[in-house]
Amino acid sequence: IPAPPHRAAEAARIAERISQTRSVDQFSAFARQYSATPSRDQGGRLPWTPVEQLPPAIQPLIMALAPGEVTAPLPIPGGIALFQLRDIEETGRPRREYSAIDYAAYYIPGGRSPEALARAAEIRTQVDRCDDLYGVAKGQPEQVLSRVTKAPAEIPQDIAIELAKLDPGEVSTALTGSDGRTLVFLMLCSRTAAVNQEADRDQVVGALRQNQLQGYSDQLLEQLRADARISRQ
User: Fold this and answer.
1) What is the phi/psi pair of residue 195, to 5°?
2) Cβ atoms of residues 174 and 162 within 8 Å
3) How many of the other CB atoms lie within 10 Å of CB of 125?
4) How far apart are CA 87 and CA 197, in angstroms?
5) Mean of per-residue pLDDT scores for the chain
6) What dotted CATH number matches 5-81?
7) 76 closest CA partner among 96, 58, 99
8) Residues 6+ apart with CB under 8 A from 146
9) pTM, 2 dp
């Protein structure tokens, strides 16, 4: 729910009322009426999402809900967010923890104007990965593009919520910045699993040890050659 300063009190009252609902249909109606995100057209419905991809602060709130229940209003930059748990699916897969999220944000002037949305749609046809955005931003001021790698807990809540919906290479245009004057073209670059990070560290340590042992071996061989006495018959 958008909550600019002049509407903050009204948005808080609406959010409190929505948080009391236990009906999926009623929550969907509220989403269509008040939500500022593209999911409003689906009644706020989001795709199935592994819980570990949600922002760390939100994970325990979602896990504490029963199907149909709604979180308390959650303040985010420029607005208020609410989540309704619709269903839970047990996959049997081990839960993955992520140590870092790499994402890019390209800022398009015009907020959610038709021109800005058309420009975002055009850029989407030109990029398959985050590195492609450097070509889009070439020749423009440095601040139009940011590329960030952060721990999940360090990512702003509104951005983290959108990233949770994405796979690497996918894009969200649900957010705006500069008090609605810019459209945020948000792209997920990659997620680094904590186990992978540990494995990478072990690989580096192993390689250093191997290099060290190889150095000792070379030194010993040179010493043996120097000490050897060769006689010819």
Assistant:
1) -65, -35
2) yes
3) 7
4) 32
5) 85
6) 3.10.50.40
7) 58
8) 104, 105
9) 0.65
Tokens 């601040």: give the residue.
Answer: 143
C-alpha 176/C-alpha 179 separation (Å) is 7
Give the separation between CA 44 and CA 31, rounded to whole angstroms.
5
CB 108 within 8 A of CB 182: yes
Three-state secondary structure call for residue 100: strand
Model confidence pLDDT, tens digit, residues 142-191: 999 999 999 988 998 889 989 988 999 999 998 998 888 999 999 999 99
The candidate with the shortest Cα–Cα distance to 185, out of 125, 118, 104, is 104
> What letters, b where the CB count within 10 A reaches 16 and e where it falls short, cover 174-184?
bbbbeeeebbb
Q: Which residues belong to CATH 3.10.50.40 in the chain?
A: 5-81, 98-194
The two tokens of residue 228 are 């050897």
Angle between helical axes of 8-19 and 24-34 (0-180°, round to 10): 160
Q: How far apart are CA 24 and CA 87, in angstroms?
A: 11
Pick the CATH number of 98-194 from 3.40.50.720, 3.90.1170.50, 3.10.50.40, 3.90.1150.10: 3.10.50.40
